[in-house]
């Protein structure tokens, strides 16, 4: 059976996901699109897809079985609430929403509905390198994690659209989520330091250094540079009691020529995480076809939003800002678990939980 999908927001990532759903993956068909710019939606609509004037019309259409939200963050809350009211599984690009209060409203609606419907676009969890890194940590062979160094660099951000808060309320959510997932832990406090400002960033607070204090005492340092010119460079290294584990550079091909030895750097997120996005949607299609959602949840979106809120306060105060989460509803009890993965030699890596 083919899942009939409607896509809201047909900008950069909306178009990439439409391509993925129509040309790469099986099991889904984009039968409807909508964008605040109707001409843009019409221009990128797959053949035969309906173009809806509003997101609400698309969500309530009887032919649409599941929804993909790729509009900008401030529009997500209303669109998510409409999807939940219609009982339709929904994939929502990060950030889930832009305030903690909005995240709580979405959570309350989903909990009242009684079944998970929302998956948030934290695609790093579907990346094979991050999955191997997590499996290594969970196996316990390196002892307890002590520090995680996370680097998030963009070549540039779209002019005019990106505000000075966005490194903290739009970009940091990826590092916050992957830290929680890798370390099976919650963020309890946030500090932010702003070094000398890059002249390429003009109005932006760029770069920034964020320190996440995890519940276990692990410290996560995050470098966010959103105008670093040379490419999209995502790195991660975890220092543990008996060793370290780090992500490889991607793409991994090493070039040697008369200029020396080098690896290419992806231009943006589309190249670096192309397989992760594909896997993310493979898993989403499977769950949505069963009328539900797995993967990063509303709870995870809420947690990342609280970290972003705390970071915005911390940058103003210059002090450690606490992160206080509400109790976790039982609907979201298992979302920090990793799927089973194998190590490089193909052996299954067992988690500490499985070993004990
Ligand atoms: P974009 O190119 O600006 O596209 C967003 C599109 O949504 C635009 O066409 C915009 O129209 C439209 N839109 C805005 N408000 C809307 C509304 N209320 N209803 C319907 N359409 C609306 O931005 P993008 O880069 O694709 O990003 C979209 C979302 O994906 C953001 O939340 C972003 O953070 C996220 N994202 C995630 C990743 C990832 O790695 N997971 C990567 C990139 C982006 P106008 O241009 O006319 O406003």
From TrEMBL:
InterPro entries: Gfo-Idh-MocA_inositol_DH (IPR050424), Gfo/Idh/MocA-like_OxRdtase_N (IPR000683), GFO_IDH_MocA-like_dom (IPR055170), MI/DCI_dehydrogenase (IPR023794), NAD(P)-bd_dom_sf (IPR036291). Residues 3-122 form the Gfo/Idh/MocA-like oxidoreductase N-terminal domain. One of its GO terms (biological process) is inositol catabolic process. The keyword NAD applies. Its EC number is 1.1.1.18. The keyword tRNA processing does not apply. It comes from the Bacteria. GO terms for molecular function: inositol 2-dehydrogenase (NAD+) activity; nucleotide binding. It catalyses: myo-inositol + NAD(+) = scyllo-inosose + NADH + H(+). Keywords: NAD, Oxidoreductase, Plasmid. It is an enzyme of class 1 (oxidoreductase). Belongs to the Gfo/Idh/MocA family. PANTHER family: INOSITOL 2-DEHYDROGENASE, PTHR43593. Homotetramer. This is Inositol 2-dehydrogenase. It comes from Sinorhizobium americanum.
């Amino acid at each position: 059976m083919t899942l009939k999908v409607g896509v809201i927001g047909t900008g950069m990532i909306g178009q990439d996901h439409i391509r993925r759903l129509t040309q790469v993956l099986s099991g889904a068909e984009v039968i409807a699109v909508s964008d605040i710019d109707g001409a843009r939606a019409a221009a990128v609509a797959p053949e035969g897809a309906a173009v809806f004037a509003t997101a609400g019309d698309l969500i309530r259409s009887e032919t649409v079985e599941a929804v993909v939200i790729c509009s900008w963050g401030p529009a997500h809350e209303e669109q998510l609430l409409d999807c939940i009211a219609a009982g339709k599984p929904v994939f929502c690009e990060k950030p889930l929403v832009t305030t903690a209060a909005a995240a709580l409203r979405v959570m309350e609606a989903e909990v009242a509905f009684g079944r998970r419907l929302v998956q948030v676009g934290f695609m790093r969890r579907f990346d094979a390198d991050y999955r191997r890194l997590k499996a290594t940590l969970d196996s316990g062979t390196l002892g307890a994690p002590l520090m995680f160094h996370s680097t998030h660099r963009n070549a540039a951000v779209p002019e005019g659209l990106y505000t000075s808060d966005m490194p903290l309320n739009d970009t940091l959510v990826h590092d916050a989520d992957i830290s929680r997932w890798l370390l099976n832990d919650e963020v309890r406090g946030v500090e932010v330091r702003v070094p000398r400002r890059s002249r390429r960033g003009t109005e932006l607070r760029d770069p920034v250094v964020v320190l996440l204090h995890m519940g276990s005492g692990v410290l996560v340092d995050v470098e966010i540079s959103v105008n670093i010119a040379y490419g999209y460079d995502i790195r991660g290294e975890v220092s543990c009691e008996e060793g370290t584990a780090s992500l490889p550079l991607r793409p991994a091909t090493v070039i040697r020529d008369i200029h020396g030895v080098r690896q290419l750097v992806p231009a943006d997120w589309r190249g670096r995480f192309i397989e992760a996005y594909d896997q993310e949607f493979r898993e989403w299609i499977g769950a949505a076809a069963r009328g539900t959602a797995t993967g990063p949840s509303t709870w995870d979106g809420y947690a990342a939003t609280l970290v972003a809120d705390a970071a915005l306060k911390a940058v103003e105060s210059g002090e450690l800002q606490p992160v206080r989460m509400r109790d976790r509803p039982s609907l979201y009890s298992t979302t920090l678990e990793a799927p089973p993965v194998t190590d490089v030699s193909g052996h299954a890596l067992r988690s500490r939980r499985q070993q004990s």
